[in-house]
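re: ur question from yesterday

yeah so i grabbed the chain u mentioned. its 85 aa long if i counted rite. heres the sequnce exactly as i have it in my notes:
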Amino acid sequence: MKNAKLYGFTMIVVCIFPFTTAAGDFDGSKELICAVMDLVECGPGGNCQQITAEAAGMPYFFKINFKDKKISSTHADGSNRATDI
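ran it thru and got these structure tokens back, copy pasting raw so excuse formatting
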């Protein structure tokens, strides 16, 4: 009985531990660099299709600066854009 309780406690600790360390050291002081992975465009009637970020006029990468409260990106044509959060 004591071994079963120890085994159960060990399994709980093993299952919980990786999730608590996965968050890393993010505290909002550094910029996040995000990438568009999948983009789906839907039209009237539920006609949805997968498209590229370039076809939608979106950049593939953008930065989120929590300190300055801005989202910025550089588009394929070289133009820089930024917006307030």
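noticed a couple things. The radius of gyration is 22 Å. also Helices lie at 2-21.
anyway ttyl
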